[in-house]
Amino acid sequence: MTRWHLQRRGTDGNDSAPVSIDASNIRLSWMTGKSAAQINELPVGADGRSVRLGDLFELTMDDSPTDRIVVEGELDHVHGLAAMHDRGDFEIIGSAGHYAACGMTGGRVCVRGDAGDYVAAPCGARRSGMSGGVIEIHGGVGNYAGHRMRRGTLMVRGSAGSMLGGSMVAGTICVGGATGNGLAVGMKRGSVILADAANVVRQADQDEDGAKRRYSSPIRFDPAFFGLYHEPMFQEITQMLLRLPVFRTRADRHVGGLGEVIFAATAETAVS
């Protein structure tokens, strides 16, 4: 087994450093069996140009108990990290750009920082988002996280932007912080678990046209299935829900409403 460590080369004082990098070619399935010299020649997009991976990242390779890619450094404008990840571990030390873990099918992705828009969303022109594996975000995520997600587990310790779980088909999303507008728009199936449901309750209250409401009326719910998840971050986020009455609402009723949004009743949500 191999550990590939990619350290972003310094950009301080370098006016010619690329503003936007497409790192979606960095894939464990491609790197396995390649020499360091071959990996350094991997073409990577930088401001619309194709450059060598070795020009942007310093690569080191070591033996490891598991196959693991570690990318570290100033990564806010590095997009597509862990795209189509399908096995082993992919660790991002720092805050990732957009499309982190897009199209992921298996394995595990950990972002030790924030992530931009479209986490676990479809990769490129594909129709489906994440379809397997586990994503762990230690910070917050931008808009459209879990868009068109089909399977797998996405955990976000911080907040999420707008359109979380939009057009979701299956899988589980668990968020510890606040969420933006458009939660679960077009959601067909799957589960969204929220430790902070204040915004989704406000959205439901503001929708006064009963025939068009996207959410069903909340009902009491026994979250016994939480015990099936052994991820420490999942247990951390859901800890509060286990101390309070838990409710479930169905969404999005415009497209069948077989998805579920699970949340705890707090004084702020004022569920009665």
UniProtKB/TrEMBL annotation:
Q: Which residues form a coiled coil?
A: none
Where on the tree of life does the source sit, at the highest rank?
Bacteria
- What is an example of a GO molecular function annotated in this UniProt entry? transferase activity
Which keywords does this Swiss-Prot/TrEMBL entry list? Hydrolase, Transferase
Q: Does the keyword NADP apply?
A: no
Protein name (Swiss-Prot/TrEMBL): Formyltransferase/hydrolase complex Fhc subunit C
Species in which this protein is naturally found: Stieleria maiorica
Q: Which gene is the coding source of this polypeptide chain?
A: fhcC
